[in-house]
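FIELD: query
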Amino acid sequence: MQKNWSDNIKTMNLKKAKIIVIEGTRKGQEMEVMFNPSQYTISDKAKYKEAPAAWTDSPFLNYKGGQASTLEMELYFDTGEVKIYGEKGVKKATAVSKVVQSFTDLVYIDSDVHAPPIVKFIWGSLSFRGVVTSVKSTYTRFTESGMPVQAKVNVSFTSVPEKNARRKSPFQSPDRTKCQMVREDCSIWDLAQKEYGDVSKWKLIARANGIADPLNIPPGTMLKIPAL
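FIELD: result
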């Protein structure tokens, strides 16, 4: 016979994941999940804009900046009757909706700070700082009276960086003037994309090298790449 979540509570000896409110009226409040998630998904995105490139059918991708990371997972809650091993008696069932509501409340604006509370989801090596952007609750088991005692909750977080924190750029802009040789398969637009991550900055290279016609740069020409 397959055991349900409640029967397994006493056999689980894993450190529980938890959500800690770090900013807002509820600052310092900790919410421990009842059952650790079986998996979680972290998504990282960047925004790009296509830019036409001369003498090629493929456009350059102009990096416009990073986007907030997201963390998604499914959590389980069960507040049904639980046998107390080694003792007589049973822990009575309570409404699981009360537990779920404490997580759902994190979606809404904190009236004192006029913003959703910032939280940290901590489990093992994972420490994700952000806001709860979505909570979808599905109630799956009920008592005879209709009280919900089991639920699965899909939770989504969106990252919020520390103040003055900056992500490392995916490309390294030059911090001093350097030189690059123009190859047959490399144009001034290629150099701008490679060195600055922005094809439109080819004009900086042209101006620094006194280039009047960017389409007429002989292969082998050494160009100065000015610092930004």
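FIELD: remark
The helical segments are 96-104, 188-196, 202-208.
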